[in-house]
Every structure is written in structure tokens, then in C-alpha cells.
Amino acid sequence: MRVLQILKTLINFLFIIYTLVYISMIFLCIYFLCFEHEIPSFLNIKINNLRISHTSEITETGKAISFFITYFIVLSLTLGSLFFLRKFVHDIKPRNIFTKKQTHYLKRIGQCIVGATLAKFIFTILWRLYFNITNGDLSAEVYAELGFGATDLFGNEFFIICIGLFFLFLAKLFSIAQRQKEENELTI
């Protein structure tokens, strides 16, 4: 149970950090888009090698707003997966396993991970396509990076989707185990 306690602590820490980042980004974006109309030099956001900063191509308010909306969708889904993971880990106790709540949490974790990864990937393709069209370069390649490197496995979208699908698979296993547990409790 010592490992479970360490896991709970780490997940709580990550959840608090991501929540603070999320809240601060909301206030910073609202302030700079409403009052400054310019991206400050210290604000530097990167999604799939697309960077928004004061020197980037994203200078118009509409482009910046669409970038921030997508950033918040991805960050919200990431925060959601951490939230459900936190709920799942806190719900596990030695005599409290294979419950409907735990199955629900695992399913939501998987959905949030897959959703965030797909949103990030689709956003990257659409954003690059948009910049190629607005820059008049229709012949340029539109691509999203899907590398297969051994150094950054958790940066690989396919691997992250596999993790999300694994959580969905675990939810199915928990559902089956929960049904069998209920049947065993009914038989004498």
C-alpha cells in the first residue's frame, strides 16, 4: 500500500500544478487578448511544434483566439484525465475494488486521453493548412509530426492513444469483474 500512497501524492501534485496552470492561462489570455491586443514576450506556448509568442505568425486577434481555444480544449481534457485518475486512485481501497464508480473513472480517463491527443493532432493539421492557405503557399506540404523515436515515447501520439485505449480496455475488464463479483455475492 506504500506504492498507492506515493501514487496518490504524485497525482494530487500533478493535478494541483495543472489546475494552477489552467487557471493562470485563462486569466492571462483574457487579459492580453482584451486589453493588450498583443501577445507578451514571456508568454510562449507550444503545441506539436506550433509555437505562439510575440514573434510568431499568430498576430491577429482571431488567430490567437482560435489557438487559445484549442489550447484550452487540450488542456481541459488533460486536466479531466488527471481529475478522473485522481478520483480512481482515491476510490481504491483493499476491500473496495471493481465498483461501478471505478469502471466509470477508467472509462473517462481513457476518453479524455484519446480526446486530448486527437484534438492536438487534428488542430496541428488544420493550423498548418490554414497558415499555408493564408500565406498563399498552396503547394506546401501539410503534415503533423508522428515520429517513432525511442527517446521521446510519451511525446508520440500513437503511444498516448494506446495508453488511452488501454484505460478503456481496463474499464471493460473492471465492468466484467464487477459483474462477476456481484454474481459471487449472490450465490451461497
Outline type: elongated
Could you give the count of β-strands? Answer: 2
Q: Estimate the helix proportion, in percent.
A: 55-70%
**Domains counted in the coordinates: how many?**
1
- Any idea what the radius of gyration is? 21 Å
User: What is the terminal separation in angstroms?
Assistant: 31 Å
Structural class: mainly alpha
Number of helices: 4
The side-by-side strand order for the widest beta sheet comes to 1-2
The proportion of strand residues reads under 5%
User: What is the typical, i.e. mean, pLDDT?
Assistant: 80
* Helix/strand order, N-terminal first: HEEHHH
Report the uncertain regions.
none
Largest sheet: 2 strands, antiparallel
Outline the fold blueprint.
Layout: H1 2-36, E1 45-47, E2 50-52, H2 61-91, H3 100-134, H4 157-186
Antiparallel strand pairs: 1-2
Helix pairs in contact: 1-2, 2-3, 3-4
Describe the model.
The chain has one domain (2-186). The chain starts with a helix and ends with a helix. It has helices at residues 2-36, 61-91, 100-134, 157-186, and strands spanning 45-47, 50-52. It is built from 4 helices and 2 strands, in the order αββααα. A two-stranded antiparallel ribbon has the order 1-2. The chain has 188 residues and is mainly α. The radius of gyration is 21 Å and the shape is elongated.
